[in-house]
């Protein structure tokens, strides 16, 4: 199938397919005599895999590594499990950061309720968010 048909069946744009081709996550099976990219049915499955892995937070670089393992005939499952574990750890750290930020914002909100805007020092810009002294 040509690139337009692949894009239509995948529910994406030709531009996206070309980009994935350029970075090496999708490859045309061959080119026609006129130079058109020609893809087989496996390209649609590969595209769906790329989208599914992006949905769980893997980068295109990581996805390219997974696909390279598969293309070499290796089973990438162990590598994928490691990636998923690292991503989960990163999310845990990010969630902890967000909880701490939410707590800080709550404290600022409570502080703001106690402050009088007329007492605000112009040098501070806003005494609700005063830099540490």
From TrEMBL:
Q: According to the lineage, what is the superkingdom? A: Bacteria
Where would I find the HTH merR-type domain in this sequence?
1-69
Keyword Cell cycle carried by entry: no
A UniProt-annotated Pfam family: MerR_1
Q: Does the keyword DNA-binding apply?
A: yes
PROSITE patterns, sorted = HTH_MERR_2
InterPro entries assigned to the protein according to its UniProt record, in alphabetical order: DNA-bd_dom_put_sf (IPR009061), MerR-type_HTH_dom (IPR000551), MerR_fam (IPR047057)
Name the keywords, alphabetized. Answer: DNA-binding, Transcription, Transcription regulation
CDD domains for the chain: HTH_HMRTR (cd04770)
Q: Which PANTHER family match?
A: HEAVY METAL-DEPENDENT TRANSCRIPTIONAL REGULATOR HI_0293-RELATED, REDOX-CYCLING DRUG-SENSING TRANSCRIPTIONAL ACTIVATOR SOXR
Q: What is this protein called?
A: MerR family transcriptional regulator
Q: Which organism is it from?
A: Acidiferrimicrobium australe
């Amino acid at each position: 199938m040509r690139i337009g048909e692949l894009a239509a069946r995948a529910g994406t744009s030709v531009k996206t397919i070309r980009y994935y081709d350029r970075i090496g996550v999708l490859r045309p099976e061959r080119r026609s005599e006129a130079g058109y990219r020609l893809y087989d049915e496996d390209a649609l499955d590969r595209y769906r895999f790329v989208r599914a892995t992006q949905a769980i937070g893997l980068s295109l670089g990581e996805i390219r590594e997974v696909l390279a393992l598969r293309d070499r005939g290796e089973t990438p499952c162990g590598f994928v499990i490691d990636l998923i574990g690292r991503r989960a750890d990163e999310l845990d750290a990010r969630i902890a950061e967000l909880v701490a930020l939410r707590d800080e914002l709550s404290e600022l909100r409570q502080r703001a309720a106690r402050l009088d805007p007329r007492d605000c020092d112009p040098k501070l810009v806003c005494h609700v968010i005063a830099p540490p002294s």
